[in-house]
Each structure stands twice: as structure tokens, then as C-alpha cells.
Design a protein that fits this description.
The protein is mainly α. Helices cover 56% and strands 0% of the residues. The protein is built from 13 helices and no strands. The termini are far apart.
Length: 343
Amino acid sequence: MAMDISAADSYVYAKASGMLAKSHVGERARILFSFNTLQELWSHLFKKEVPLVPETLLAQALEQEAFDDFVLQYKKLIENYSKPKEILLSLLHGYDYENLKDISAALSLGEKKLPQIQKVYPFNIINYDKWPDLKQMTAEGPLAWYDEVPSVKDLHLVNHKIDSQNVIELWNALKKTESSCRKALTDLFAEKLSLDNFVWSIRLRLYYGMEREQIVPLLAYTSEEKSERDVIVQDALKSLDWALDDFDSWKKSRFSKLLNLHEDGVVWSVDPVWISNAYKAVHVEKARRLFHQHPFTSCPMVCWFIIKQNELDNIRTASESLRLNIDSQQAMKIVGIAEVNNG
């Protein structure tokens, strides 16, 4: 039952604070990597009995259960508001955008079964019950323009448009947050989106050999204008002129502390995976600090979402490391909770 705004803010802030204290992030994330079997990890995380299924299926079940728990907790918190702020819904919509990419890929390949989706009902912007009619699935929502199944060769272009709309929706929602926390939240996401573009541009150069003129249109922008003055593309654009193996150039970046280790006399090349993993801990720590700075606004719930989403990533990585028998220290590096060396 929804409360008035001030009562909801107070209740949600207190409830969310308690939840975060038990979260597997930062140093507490190490607990997830201390178990020897998926059964032990399941028993630690959930009250439900461990399913009697093969190892591969147990890993899938564990990861789905963790996601369902995360979304259920979030929905229970924001349902205390009669009308949740747009930013709180926009965060959930990110899963719909990802689902749509999987759905369009399945339809393009002629698959008959709805792929596994991450459900955020009743806050979804896609009508999944209308599968496999793509036009009906997206009708009357912000994705209504996506009404035809693309060819396999065009999937990457449509996926880029979906990702772009996701970023624009998020950015527009940030503009409508309370004035007291708007700058702090905008700065937090501006850095994250800038990092995403920075890493994406490196990937396009490193793995696909793309040139500047090919990369610029494939970056994410905060508006459909796609201006090169956009705040979230500046870091990526600057880096396009740097040779991938020139450490002296890359260390001028504002993300220099996230670069993979550089040793004199040893061949070096910028590593986008390393940068991305190293940033996870930075982003979550900033959200953790920001959580308490603007109580009784939408800020704590946004930060809660970021922190708990990181916990979900940690759980998934711990699950996969057990399934694939990956060393726990290596697995922790993947999620950015082990010590990172900087050049």
C-alpha cells in the first residue's frame, strides 16, 4: 500500500539501509567465493531447498533465483510510492531493453520459443504475452517503433538503437530527479556512461579494427542529436587518436588508474576488459557513499539499485566459477573485488 511521499521516503530509506548492510559487495563479496559447491552457495543465499537438478541447471536456477530476489526486493521498496519517480522505473526498464535484444535475435533466427527473459512486471514496457508478434509486444510503449523483425545482418544496428534509447531514457529521467540530489546522480551516471563509451570504443578498435569515422556513430549519446560535445562521449573521442599500445597516451586519460599493469620494457596494449572490471568497484563505492548523502530523496533507491545489481553480478560470477571450476581468486578479479594493480 502506497504512503504519502515523506512517509515513503523515510520508510524506504530505513528499509534499504538494512538490506545493504547484508549485501555481498565490497569485502563481503568474498564470502560468495568461499564455497566449494553450488549447493553450498545456494544454501547460503536462499531459504528454499536446493533443487535436485544437474550442476548446469542448478547454476541457471541459482542465478535466476538471485535475479528474482533482487527485482522483488526493489519492487517492494518502490511500491511504497503511489507514483515512483521516473528514474526508479528507468533503471528497471534497462532489463526490458536487454530482453528485446534477445527477443529480436530469436525471432531473426526463426526460433519458436520465447527466450529466457528477466521479468520486471508490472513495470515492464514490453508485453511479453504477445510473443511472437513483435509489433504487439512493443505497441503503445516507448519501443513501438520497433515493429518489424530485423534480418540477422541488421541486428547490431537495431541493438545499437535500443541501447541508445535506453541511455536517453535514463538521462532524461535523471533531469527530473529532485534538485537536491540531481547533480550528484547525474555526475555518477555521466562517469559510468563515459566509461562505457570509453571501453566500447577500445573494443571496436581492438577487436574489429574500426576507424574513428566508424566508431563515432556507434557511441551512446544522451540525446538523439548525437553531438560530439555530449558529456558522455568526450573521453572516448579523445582516446580515438591514441595508439592502442602507447601507454604514455593512455595514462593521460581520466581513467588512467583503471589501466592494466604497465612494466618498462614489456609490450603493452590497452585492455578494455581490465578497465571495465576495475571500474566496477569504483562505481559501487561511489554509489555506497552517495546513498547516505541525500536521504529522503530518490537518491538512496538509485544507489541501492546500483549496489544490489553489483551483488547480483557477484553472485552470477561465483555461480559460474563453481560450475566451470574456475579458481576463486581469478573469479574475484573478474568482478573487480580483488586488488587491482595500476601502471
